[in-house]
Design brief:
By secondary structure, the chain is of the alpha/beta class. It has 22 helices and twelve strands. The chain has helices at about 1-20, 25-30, 35-55, 60-70, 75-110, 110-140, 145-165, 170-190, 195-200, 245-260, 275-285, 295-305, 305-310, 325-330, 355-360, 380-390, 420-430, 430-440, 445-450, 455-465, 490-495, 510-535; strands at about 210-215, 220-225, 230-235, 235-240, 265-270, 290, 320, 335-340, 365-375, 395-405, 405-415, 450-455. The strands form two sheets. An eight-stranded mixed beta sheet has the order 7-6-5-8-9-11-10-12, sandwiched between helices. A four-stranded antiparallel beta sheet has the order 1-2-3-4.
Length: about 525
């Protein structure tokens, strides 16, 4: 989250400044800078290792914070403060390093201006190189935990090497040597993907772990639970289940834009997930499907673990391993349909801003349809409306569809929708898509169209005026809602505003029985939402 990144940056900038200030005391007292530098490096390794162990042991507290549903400062705020305390001690010691090296180097050469410039350049190069090597070399090859231990070992070895220039550092040498041997043993024995340690941090991995891998873009896990159902987690957040309700959502992310698109030829899916949306479009007969997925680990999981049930189809979609926004910048194609996979806006704000929707609109055909999943949980009512408002600010014609208490879908276009019931029913009767939807209890067109909730006029009235979620002002990222359950304020705000399909869908008199069936299903869905609201309230 943005709060976590802010905490880390604050700890590093503040810690380095504090360390640089503290070190002037020992230097003024005439301490040997080389000996002090050696001890500082060994100290960085030792404190980091100890705090790493402490972080693992106290990880259950983080989960308790997240589940308590107390005020923001008592949960997220306290969690960030604790992270700050854990990170700061070794960073303060790191702050000793540059002043000490500057003093040592200046004493050797005697040209302070040139010396500081050279050291500053090396410091910058080292910072960039360290970031690149950690993300793209160490973590893919060794995993997060072994990479961490390898970096600790570098600090210890550096400190030991520096002590070679002083004769009275025997105890420190022995300590560093013992620790280095111990860490080498750990690195050799620990698997690259240390699932046990990650379980302490990640409640998603509580059940049987089918697959777990850490890559430069994401840590991806697949777990089995509840009678052989599975969940896909990315960086600790579940993005897809194989439970019926979740499968229905991902199928509707493909079906709903498809039934309103005139002869769709090209489709783009932003985010692969477990492949249900992409396969749905394939089963619907869309000839050219592109998928933008930033993580190669997710693509592997989709094809090799979920593939037989959800992904493999007659013609596999083209998968581009890149960010969805980057793909829209790079691609020269025009899409008839763009749909996004379900990742919560608190964790993936980049695909929920009006700027992103403007990029999509630029890449869509004149009759194209944009489809966006919007959750009702972990957001305030105003934040939920802000997401809808950001969407409709770009797509003047829109409609809201409610899948269940936790999931809604908004469709958008530059032109008014044609609610042609005959055309929609004909499409949904096509054998391949019909059989595929029946597996998820969508037996007929009424089961699909029951999710219709607000047409364009009703949606505009519902969201009203207000601010937008933009790249420059990502208000959703800084939400302070703690509870991750569906927000009752959101559900009750639109529960009584449902637009009946009979008022909107075009059909002949001989089809009134179909409209009546759809409205009956709509009422059943509204009743289920009402029951849920009463139970939770």
């Amino acid at each position: 989250t943005s709060f976590f990144y802010t905490t880390v940056i604050l700890a590093f900038v503040g810690g380095l400044a504090i360390g640089s200030y503290i070190v002037k005391g020992p230097l003024k007292r005439g301490k040997d800078p080389l000996k002090l530098l050696a001890r500082v490096q060994i100290g960085i390794g030792c404190t980091t290792l100890l705090l790493f162990v402490l972080f693992i042991l106290t990880a259950p507290l983080f989960h308790a914070f997240q589940e308590s549903q107390s005020a923001w400062f008592a949960t997220v705020g306290l969690e960030q403060f604790y992270i700050f305390l854990v990170i700061t001690p070794p960073v303060v010691l790191m702050g000793f390093t540059f002043p000490l090296v500057s003093v040592i180097y200046n004493h050797a050469e005697g040209n302070i201006g040139k010396d500081i410039g050279s050291l500053g350049a090396l410091d910058t190069v080292g910072s960039v190189a360290g970031s690149v090597v950690a993300a793209f070399v160490l973590i893919p090859l060794l995993g997060t935990v072994r990479s961490f231990l390898a970096v600790v070992m570098i600090n210890l070895l550096l400190g030991t090497w520096l002590l070679q220039f002083r004769k009275n550092g025997i105890m420190m040498k022995r300590l560093a040597g013992v620790l280095v041997v111990a860490i080498v043993g750990l690195v050799a024995l620990l698997p690259a993907n240390t699932v046990w340690i990650n379980k302490q941090w990640n409640t998603v991995l509580e059940d049987k772990v089918i697959y777990y891998r850490e890559g430069p873009s994401a840590s991806v896990g697949v777990t089995e639970f509840r009678n052989r159902n599975a969940a896909l987690s990315i960086n600790g957040a579940i993005t897809a289940y194989t439970l019926l309700n979740d499968v229905q959502v991902h199928k509707m992310l493909g079906v709903l834009p498809w039934i309103f698109t005139e002869e769709p030829g090209d489709a783009l899916v932003v985010g692969l997930g477990i492949g249900i949306t992409a396969k749905t479009l394939d089963m619907a007969g869309v000839p050219d499907i592109s998928v933008a997925e930033i993580s190669p680990e997710v693509a592997y999981v989709c094809e090799n673990i979920f593939g037989t049930l959800y992904f493999q189809a007659d013609s596999s979609p083209a998968i581009f391993i890149e960010d969805g926004r980057a793909h829209l910048y790079r691609s020269e194609k025009t899409y008839d349909l763009i749909t996004t996979n379900a990742i919560h806006p608190r964790l993936g704000n980049g695909i929920y801003t009006s700027d992103f929707y403007a990029m999509c609109a630029d890449r869509m055909s004149p009759d194209g349809i944009m489809c966006q999943w919007i959750p009702t949980n972990w957001l305030s009512e105003e934040e939920y409306k802000t997401l809808l408002r950001s969407f409709t600010a770009v797509f003047p014609c829109a409609s809201l569809w409610v899948i269940n208490d936790a999931h809604t879908i908004v469709l958008g276009s530059g032109k008014p929708f044609r609610y042609d019931l005959e055309k929609i029913m004909a499409r949904l009767r096509e054998p391949a898509i019909n059989e595929y939807l029946e597996r998820s209890l969508y037996i007929n067109s009424a089961d699909v169209l029951k999710h219709f909730w607000l047409d364009n006029a009703a949606l505009k009235d519902y969201i009203g005026p207000g601010e937008l979620n933009t790249d420059n002002r990502p208000v959703i990222e800084f939400s302070k809602v703690v509870s991750r359950a569906p927000n009752l304020d959101v559900l009750t705000s639109f529960a009584g505003n449902q637009v009946r399909v009979g008022e909107l869908f075009e059909t002949g008199h001989d089809r009134m029985n179909v409209l009546n069936a759809i409205e009956s299903r709509q009422q059943e869905l509204a009743n289920r939402l009402g029951v849920y609201i009463e139970q939770i309230d």
